[in-house]
Amino acid sequence: MEELIVSLHMHTNYSDGSGSHRDIAMAALKSGLDAAIVTDHNVYVTGPEGYTRDGQKRTLLLIGEEIHDQARSPQKNHLLVFNARRELANFAPDPQILINQVKQAGGLSFIAHLYDPACPPIKEVDISWVDWQVFGFTGIELWNSFSELKIQGKTYLHILFYVFFPNFLNHAPPPQILAKWDELLNSGQRIVAVGGADAHALHVSAGPIKRVVFPYEFHFKGITNHLLTPTGLSGDMEKDKKMIYEAFEKGHSFVSFDAPAATRGFRFTAQGREQTALMGDEINVRDGVTLNINLPEITECRLVKDGQVIKTWNNRETCTHITNLPGVYRVEVYRKHLGARRGWIFSNPIYCR
After folding, report:
1. Three-class DSSP category at 254
2. Domains of the chain (ranges plus CATH)?
3. Lesser CB count within 10 Å: N end or C end of the chain?
4. Beta carbons within 10 angstroms of residue 336's beta carbon
């Protein structure tokens, strides 16, 4: 299997971002991303998809959409839509109808901003997802980089600190989101987790001070998605686009925070008598399976079953656990960075049936 690094959930000047599609493509290329997926608010922009190249380096820019009901106040229930290939914002008032339309169009849908509380210091309202009667969506945004500013920014001084020292911002997915993910998984649903940059590259000024708050490059070196694919990118846009979205749909991926150290090479698999399962796959545990975890370096690794931590390792790069118990198994990896324990890797589950 090949490993591709993909950032998603970002905005251009077509909605509330400051840069162009070209700016994002160049930032993604500079940051070493294999692909970036732009999702402007309630506008499907046709035309900018394609490869950007610089010598032997290349990155693929893809276009999705972040859809929400603009008539609702506050504007909750944001849905990330990929590969629908047409405008669907007119279905925003009813999230279930929107999800159904995305599926009918052959697209993927991910619930965004699961927990995005109000932040009084910057006069931002709560935009968390609230309609939990919905079903049939592909997955959830487990970790949103920009939303964490609202979570960590308790006071105006906190906000200023993170604006000027952004590398201290990201800590881990909010426990409320991890708990909701486990709840959905325990209900029998297959729910794929992704990490979102929510990049805007906002230009702000205060008197003589001018600054770009969280440039695109900052997000592209932080919370990303690592996809396991049958081959590397071929340079054929339609072929590569199909392969990327298939990997997302299957959950053959993990959410990573690459700022502390590179997460490339992490693997979580299950080996049975006649089958090997990747993240996102199902496997029969009747005759027992061995869960294998390979870490890029020694750090804290936790194996989670049905929402409960069942094993923790602190001194191994390779971790194994043998089981014949059905359940939903996933992995969380933490490490120290800038004086704090921070989330590093969050795998998609392996479904042991």
Report:
1. strand
2. 2-257 (3.20.20.140), 267-352 (2.60.40)
3. C
4. 12
Residue 122 sits at φ, ψ, to 5 deg, of -115, 15
To the nearest 5 percent, what fractions of the chain are helix, strand and coil?
20, 35, 40
Q: What is the spatial distance between Cα 203 and Cα 218, in angstroms, rounded to a whole number?
A: 14
Peptide bond into 74 cis (omega under 30): yes
What is residue 122's predicted lDDT score, i.e. its pLDDT? 86
Tell me how many degrees the CA angle 192-197-198 measures, rounded to the nearest 5: 105
Q: What does pLDDT average to over the chain?
A: 95
- Which pLDDT belongs to residue 205? 67
Average pLDDT for 105-117: 96
Distance CA(261)–CA(257), nearest Å, equals 8
Q: How many CB atoms lie within 10 A of CB 242?
A: 12
d(C-alpha 305, C-alpha 352), whole Å? 10
Give CA–CA dist 153/272, Å, rounded.
Answer: 46
Separation of alpha carbons 86 and 281, rounded Å: 29
Confidence label for 227 from pLDDT (cuts 50, 70 and 90) = very high
| Predicted local distance difference test score (pLDDT) of residue 317 | 94
Note whether 295 and 322 are within 8 A (CB). Answer: no
Mean pLDDT over 28-35 rounds to 97
Query: What secondary structure letter does DSSP report for 315?
Result: S
Q: Average pLDDT of 342-347?
A: 98
- Name the percent of the chain lying above pLDDT 90: 88
Q: How many CB atoms lie within 10 A of CB 156?
A: 11
pLDDT band at 74 (very low <50, low <70, confident <90, very high): confident
Token digits of residue 305: 């079953």
CA-based nearest residue to 327, from 293, 275, 291? 291
CB of 141 closer than 8 Å to CB of 109 = no
